[in-house]
DNA sequence: GCGACAG
DNA sequence: ATCTTGTCGC
């Protein structure tokens, strides 16, 4: 599976900033997809010993949540972690992993924000534009925005806003457990994104896509550190 | 100036 | 994100 749009990754902070402003114009915040058979989960871990990023992409069956394919890649870090420019650090590794995938997904759940971002172009939106595929941003903590605490029962949510603009949802995926921050990545509406996240999180705080990718990345990280 | 700041 | 020690809540 290959990107439909590419741009250089070895760029300055300013260039990355400007590129985000340009690409943000291409983001679609409405449902624009056909049947979803396979859903992808993505996660990245950092190995300080080798200064490498480990990226995992896991493909799940959309109904059974069974893992049908998974790949892992390793890469040296090329871009520092800067809040707001997160995708320029992690996406090169993720793209590399997607290149190896044989079962193209119809939806990707990302570990990071979508348009809940200062320039409305977080990691999930960036990935969505590169592959022109529906993506959902799903963060454990927020980058920007204000919100009220949603009710403690699973399924409740409240709006994440930035200057009156709704940029995402604070969604409770389990009773009494901290909510997660869901935002539109690309080619999906916020309400549909929340429905999918609930469907993908039957028993855990984070969606199964993220959990499976995270598990794979951790195993790989451990093997790497043994050597 | 101070705090906030996806992973 | 990783690393790390102590501390808090169930």
Please provide a written account of the structure:
With 227 residues, the protein is an alpha+beta fold. The chain is built from five helices and eight strands, in the order αβββαβαββββαα. It has one domain (13-226): archaeoglobus fulgidus dsm 4304 superfamily (archaeoglobus fulgidus dsm 4304 fold), CATH 3.30.2170.10. Helices cover 28% and strands 26% of the residues. Strands 3-2-1-4-5-8-7-6 form an eight-stranded mixed beta sheet, sandwiched between helices. α2 packs parallel to α3. The chain binds two DNA strands through β1 and α2.
Features:
alpha+beta; archaeoglobus fulgidus dsm 4304 fold; 26% strand; 227 residues; single chain; 8-stranded mixed β-sheet; 5 helices; DNA-binding
In one word, what is the shape?
globular
> Tell me, what is the CATH class?
Alpha Beta
Tell me the major beta sheet.
Answer: 8 strands, mixed
**Could you name the CATH topology?**
archaeoglobus fulgidus dsm 4304 fold
Task: Summarize the entry for a quick read.
The protein is α+β, with helices and mostly antiparallel strands. It contains five helices and eight strands.
What is the fold's blueprint, element by element?
Blueprint: H1 13-23, E1 38-47, E2 52-61, E3 67-76, H2 87-99, E4 107-111, H3 123-131, E5 135-139, E6 157-162, E7 165-171, E8 180-186, H4 190-200, H5 208-226
Parallel strand pairs: 1-4, 4-5
Antiparallel strand pairs: 1-2, 2-3, 5-8, 6-7, 7-8
Helix pairs in contact: 2-3
The protein binds two DNA strands through residues 43-48, 53, 81-84, 86-87, 89-90, 111-113, 116-117, 122-123, 137, 139-144, 181.
Pfam families: Endonuclease_5 (PF04493)
Subcellular location: Cytoplasm
Protein name: Endonuclease V
